[in-house]
Amino acid sequence: MRAAVLTGFRAPLDIQHLSDPECPEDGVVLSVLACGVCRSDWHSWTGSDPDVMLPHVPGHEYCGVVEEVGARVSRWKRGDRVIAPFILACGTCPACAAGNQTTCPTQIIPGFTHPGAFAERIAVARADHNLTRLPETMEPALAAALGCRVTTAWHGLTGRAALQPGEWLAVFGTGGIGLSALLLAKAIGARVVMVDVVAEKLDHAIAHGADAVVNAASSDAPQAIRDITGGGAHVAVEALGIEQTTVSALKSLRKLGRMVQIGMPAGKHTQMSLPMDAVYSGQLALFGTRGMPSWRYPSLLNLIAGGGVDLSPLIARRVALSDASEELAAFDGPTAPGVAVITDFSR
């Protein structure tokens, strides 16, 4: 099979012909239909993720068709179209039994701890506990874009912060997570302020339903949000994983506000200096979130399939496997609106 292989940090991915993956007894092998290119993949590419050992195949936002089925798999057969969360939980430990699969202590993470989906095929372990069937009408590119950004945003907004209709949401960062949060929050009935430093991305957010935008390069973002919302946001989402926006997100909240850290802190940002006086005096709640349990997929897929939310504005570019290096390098600076999805694995 063809695969894009990381052989050196910050080096162009090497397109190689690798052996097809072996099918796990409890898993399946998928023919990959599409795979998103995510900022988390950029962390792997830069060497910021300690789980990644070279050589390595990145890619964790994927959907595909079942080609092989392990002997211990009962729910899936060859030809099924499926999607998997990027955290593959064991399904049997106390955390999984409580519904908290994203905290499974033996989790497998394709693209990080195991070979990922920047390839024509991928082995997916623990298939019965993790795979979800795709609606027949869902385009593969959109399904792949769900795999990290949309699912994480959905779980952060509904499973962690419990965003309610009519509440104000402030989103710091208008990339894949930020745009997903905007579209989902509007479907819930919330009002949304988007914050970024790229005017083009703020214009894109307005075009897709944002009630207000703030350019943090030219204004005091927390104060602007307090002015727009009449006292501060009820919920804030940090979608970049850096100290400056995390601090601003906390300071943008009203009393009893809830802040969700979705952006992945890596490198120098793993340690941050935060305004704990604001947390204390405002009686704020700070949630970390990462991924979404597989049992929550049907509610999100039903919302999409039923026309409750249109996520097509997420996808800006459908690219070839050989374009992945260029897409990863682009995360070094301000990126254009929307996300890239690999849909052509032949070149």
Number of domains: 2
Radius of gyration: 20 Å
| Strand fraction | 15-25%
Q: What form results from the Cα inertia axes?
A: globular
Task: Indicate the CATH architecture of the largest domain.
Answer: Alpha-Beta Complex
CATH structural class of the largest domain:
Alpha Beta
Structural class by sheet pairing and helices: alpha/beta
CATH superfamily of the largest domain: Medium-chain alcohol dehydrogenases, catalytic domain
The helix content, as a percent range, equals 25-40%
Query: Ranges with pLDDT <50 over ≥5 residues?
Result: none
Helix/strand order, N-terminal first: EEEHEEHEHEHEHEHEHEHEHEHEHE
Largest sheet: 7 strands, mixed
Query: Any idea of the CATH topology of the largest domain?
Result: Quinone Oxidoreductase, Chain A, domain 1
Family: Belongs to the zinc-containing alcohol dehydrogenase family.
Organism: Albidovulum marisflavi
Protein name: Zinc-dependent alcohol dehydrogenase family protein
Keywords: Metal-binding, Oxidoreductase, Zinc
